[in-house]
């Protein structure tokens, strides 16, 4: 009986994997932050293999909230066509870069040069794949003009080092290492806010925390969650990576040699105080639709119905505002209601990315 009561009191957040994905670090740290600050309902994390798997769990009611990509949330996170609502923004863009092997830099100088080329990604449906779609749409190169091959991170890094692909979308630690070792050069870098804005638009959101449209969680119940995320996000944006490792589990840290590169590669992309403007959300939804139209069953409401920022606003006021919500955002947030049913579940093992540097290319 007591175990059932404790389980009901826990808020479960589904997190897109792998466990080492840097865009979801604030959620990992928030679990500890909530426990430290004595949140009324403890947070429990459940790691899923991909952004799609995590979003599907929210739609099925297996988690209370989910940290995943906007793309996945809209496509498969809906409940009978009603998309989930965004309660906290994580990153503006996927923390990846478009690289070309050092020996092919004359062939691929801009994303427009990808036409007729072989481009490597880690896997379909990943941030790398989304970044590639955004680049192609921006330079008006249709996907059928590009040969896209999936490798997995380790093999993709080796393919770049060996010149087996013309270009690749890849994240850290691989992107930083390949460039530092002189095996690749950067063509477009989503890890830099100015570059992300160039290819995605002035304001954008890629990863965020969502609640189902049918959830019964109200603003008061989500304030502790927003507070824990806010504390974690501010800490990540300012603290050295070495200071954060002790608060993360081994599966999240992965290879200790890689953790600083992953964190530093994503740090500049974290949205200040988790705030997402209506303009950024609209631009990002348009980009999602450019990649592929949303399922016909999905009905997009007004933007103010997709943003549920009232818990974040109140958490900011309690902690001191670093990047406050504007008056229109506060007004829109107050108009959003919460209805649906609570859910509970049990943790499952998380997964971690393989992390070893590619062998140097001497050819």
Characteristic terms for this protein:
single chain, 363 residues, alpha/beta, D-Maltodextrin-Binding Protein, domain 2, 2 domains, 5-stranded mixed sheet, 16 helices, globular, disordered N terminus, disordered C terminus
Percent of residues in beta strands? 5-15%
Structural class: alpha/beta
Across the major sheet, the strand order is 2-1-3-10-4
- Helical run tally: 16
Multimeric state: single chain
Largest sheet: 5 strands, mixed
CATH topology-level fold name of the largest domain? D-Maltodextrin-Binding Protein, domain 2
Residues in helices, as a percent range:
40-55%
Shape: globular
CATH class of the largest domain: Alpha Beta
Please tell me the CATH architecture of the largest domain by its name. Answer: 3-Layer(aba) Sandwich
Please count the beta strands (DSSP E, at least 2 residues each).
10
Topology (elements, then pairings):
Elements: H1 2-9, E1 11-16, H2 25-36, E2 43-48, H3 51-59, E3 65-69, H4 70-76, E4 85-91, E5 96-101, E6 118-121, H5 127-138, E7 147-150, H6 153-161, E8 167-171, H7 174-180, E9 184-189, H8 193-200, E10 207-211, H9 219-238, H10 241-245, H11 250-253, H12 256-267, H13 278-291, H14 303-306, H15 310-319, H16 327-334
Parallel strand pairs: 1-2, 1-3, 6-7, 6-8
Antiparallel strand pairs: 3-10, 4-10, 5-8, 5-9
Question: Can you offer a commentary on this structure?
Answer:
There is one protein chain. The protein contains 16 helices and ten strands. Helix 5 links the parallel strand 6 and strand 7. By secondary structure, the protein is α/β, with parallel strands linked by helices. The N terminus and C terminus are likely disordered. The chain has two domains: 222 residues, 3-Layer(aba) Sandwich (D-Maltodextrin-Binding Protein, domain 2); 105 residues, Periplasmic binding protein-like II (D-Maltodextrin-Binding Protein, domain 2, 3-Layer(aba) Sandwich), CATH 3.40.190. A five-stranded mixed β-sheet has the order 2-1-3-10-4, sandwiched between helices. A five-stranded mixed β-sheet has the order 7-6-8-5-9, sandwiched between helices.
